[in-house]
Amino acid sequence: MNVRFIAALSLLAPLAAPASTLEFGLLTTVYDYTELDGTTVLDTERSNLGDIGGGYLGLAFPLRDNGLGGRDSVTLYGSHTQGTTRYKGSLLGSGMPYGSYVATTADTFDDIRLGLSRSFPMYGLDYTLEAGIGYQRWKRELSSTQKETYEWQYLHVGAGMAETFYRDWTLALEFDGKYAFVKEMEARLEGMEPLNFTLGRSFSLSAGVPITIPLRDTLALVLRLGFEFAKMNRSDTVSAYYPPEDTVKPWYEPESEQQNWHFGAGLVMEF
Description:
Blueprint: H1 7-10, E1 21-30, E2 32-37, E3 40-46, E4 52-65, E5 71-89, E6 101-122, E7 125-143, E8 146-165, E9 169-189, E10 195-198, E11 202-216, E12 219-232, E13 238-242, E14 247-251, E15 255-270
Antiparallel strand pairs: 1-4, 1-15, 2-3, 2-15, 3-5, 4-5, 5-6, 6-7, 7-8, 8-9, 9-10, 9-11, 11-12, 12-15, 13-14
């Protein structure tokens, strides 16, 4: 799961001197996840607005004025969200078709990222570029007998542009890309040893539109809307003993896609 975090920390009204910034707030996600075997749907998970929620925290520490009218900064971002989704599919190893098992799934999402950003004005707009490295984890409990944990480290690049308008409000457009380079998944089924998979090529692309509304000289309200597309290719295949059939079976994690909407509201402070 991804939430944009570039602009509000560095696209406040231009500062007379570099200042550190802190952003914190609440998140909710409209989640749409699909597992596939080619074009065949294996299972889906979906949520409504408010079903998955939590919070986020971001920090930016200026390093220097960069000579371009802006500054270079170290950024740190973290988020935690959890909730439930509506699962439709089948239990792992059951051999039953899509739709044979319907349930409410408990989900937990964590994300932490460290980056470097550069801000600068150009042609009447304020721009920000960022690159960094991060870690994400998704815990997924489909039932009391089937639990899965996905973990991956990723490279991150992002860009944002913003314009100040009505009473120093700021409207920004942000783009973000992630590419996972260490990606693993563990599946736990009742009565079996844990199954450990190396996931296939995984990436996500996001776009966001935050609005920043000044409240005081060093305090602002930020409202966020974002869309994320994520793709994860099929894992490797592992062999493991399956007690109900008294046999060794091949196991793998199918490819998957996500199309998620993210909504956030928070405060930005300079200090």
